[in-house]
């Protein structure tokens, strides 16, 4: 039984996953609570030259969303995402880098909505930003239902779809620097009726190449739509070097996971992240959490 099959088997178990869980703070209730918020209070930003895009992250708001914060470097959540990020970084820059084309382009997705993918994507970005010699660009590619504004309180005039659809908008115009030095963000941009076509366009191919090559020390994380809910996710996956499929334990049917994996069969590296699994009573997890990580490599 390979690791993907094991992960699928775990997703159907009840109270039998000893190494496959992420914090309950990334559960569906959190996403529903965030989605129900009507607005996020504007933040006070420092004076910057006209045209600069900079955002001071509200640490209190981040904590309320269950996200990592700079002072959480030794928290259980921080340790959890250290384990999650390590194989991704290794595929991009380490011993496997020669085997993974565009390994620093990483898409985080799920089969269905509300599995915690945005929570995982943002925390993974925050964890990578703590690396000494790496930077991270977080791209909100869930263009129909962008989650980054809710989680981080960021608003931006231009974003991914504006870059793809606008002749005079450059990637640099859409990048928002943050008060975390190694973390920058590109928002989803204005709604577009041909968003799928834009993501499948030559402009997207050129944009992802620019993202991958402009800063060779940078991981680019794409928060993608769910694979079985929209057409954008499978199109976006074609541009990626790595894909992480978030699977919510004990809720998502095995058929849905297999359907999502079928859409990713042309991707070179696909990893599964089992989220919201139950802890087994009486087992010491060390950090308080466990995780599940499977690998699939195209033959």
TrEMBL record:
Stretches assigned to coiled coil: none
Nucleotide-binding recorded as keyword: yes
Keywords assigned by UniProt, alphabetized: ATP-binding, Kinase, Nucleotide-binding, Transferase, Tyrosine-protein kinase
GO cellular component: plasma membrane
Record InterPro entries: Bact_polysacc_biosynth/exp (IPR050445), P-loop_NTPase (IPR027417), Wzc-like_C (IPR005702)
Region (Disordered): 1-39
Annotated SUPFAM superfamilies: P-loop containing nucleoside triphosphate hydrolases (SSF52540)
GO molecular function, one term: protein tyrosine kinase activity
PANTHER family given in the database record: FERRIC ENTEROBACTIN TRANSPORT PROTEIN FEPE, TYROSINE-PROTEIN KINASE
UniProt name for this protein: Protein-tyrosine kinase
Lineage: Bacteria, Pseudomonadati, Pseudomonadota, Gammaproteobacteria, Chromatiales
């Amino acid at each position: 039984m390979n690791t993907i099959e094991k992960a699928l088997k775990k997703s159907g178990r009840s109270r039998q996953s000893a190494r496959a869980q992420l914090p309950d703070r990334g559960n569906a209730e959190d996403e529903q609570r965030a989605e129900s918020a009507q607005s996020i209070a504007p933040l006070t930003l420092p004076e910057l030259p006209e045209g600069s895009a900079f955002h001071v992250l509200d640490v209190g708001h981040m904590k309320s969303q269950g996200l990592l914060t700079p002072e959480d470097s030794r928290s259980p959540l921080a340790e959890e995402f250290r384990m999650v990020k390590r194989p991704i970084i290794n595929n991009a820059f380490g011993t496997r880098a020669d085997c993974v084309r565009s390994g620093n382009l990483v898409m985080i997705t799920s089969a269905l909505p509300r599995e915690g993918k945005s929570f995982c994507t943002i925390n993974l970005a925050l964890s990578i930003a703590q690396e000494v010699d790496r930077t991270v660009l977080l791209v909100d590619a869930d263009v129909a239902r962008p989650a980054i504004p809710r989680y981080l309180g960021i608003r931006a005039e231009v974003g991914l779809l504006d870059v793809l659809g606008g002749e005079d908008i450059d990637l640099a115009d859409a990048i928002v620097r943050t008060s975390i030095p190694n973390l920058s963000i590109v928002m989803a941009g204005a709604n577009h009726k041909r968003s799928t076509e834009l993501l499948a366009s030559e402009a997207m191919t050129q944009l992802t190449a620019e993202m991958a090559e402009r800063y060779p020390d940078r991981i680019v994380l794409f928060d993608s739509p769910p694979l079985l809910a929209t057409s954008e996710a499978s199109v976006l996956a074609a541009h990626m070097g790595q894909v992480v499929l978030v699977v919510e334990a004990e809720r998502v049917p095995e058929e849905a996971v297999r359907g999502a994996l079928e859409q990713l069969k042309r991707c070179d590296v696909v990893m599964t992240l089992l989220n919201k699994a139950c802890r087994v009573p009486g087992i010491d997890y060390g950090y308080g959490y466990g995780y599940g990580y499977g690998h699939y490599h195209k033959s």
